[in-house]
Amino acid sequence: xxxxxxxxxxxxxxxxxxxxxxxxxxxxxxxxxxxxxxxxxxxxxxxxxxxxxxxxxxxxxxxxxxxxxxxxxxxxxxxxxxxxxxxxxxxxxxxxxxxxxxxxxxxxxxxxxxxxxxxxxxxxxxxxxxxxxxxxxxxxxxxxxxxxxxxxxxxxxxxxxxxxxxxxxxxxxxxxxx
Length: 178
Hints:
Number of strands: 9
Shape: globular
Strand content: 25-35%
Number of domains: 1
Order of helices and strands: EHEHEHEEEHEEEH
CATH architecture: 3-Layer(aba) Sandwich
Helix content: 25-40%
CATH topology: Rossmann fold
Largest sheet: 7 strands, mixed
CATH class: Alpha Beta
């Protein structure tokens, strides 16, 4: 099967930070009051961290993975971790579920069903992302940028996906020798 050529969206650290702040404002201005915040790792970690800080809500983390092959650029079967990491106790009440983007929406749909089955004290789940791609069949409740295409989004921290420890050693060796 031939690979579909994707366009690319390159995002700087400043742009990334601005998108997270805009997402926080969208949630705030909506009036949605949530009891807990759950981010999907890995993409939602940074977004969830900032939102948890500005909303003063403990951060819960659920690891999910579907992009593993080819340095994380090829989607496969969705895996959802068995446990959620949190210091806030059992999930209950209103939940804000956060990720970096909605590609097809399959992850949000599967995780929402999983959470509602596993945590019967949850009364509502709303979703929040920075980007929604054109292919999304599940729309998040809060989104900063709705894309007209399905680009590969190059986030500022993705350079570490292909960085080795030898690369870091060389980089810092060169910096110390200046």
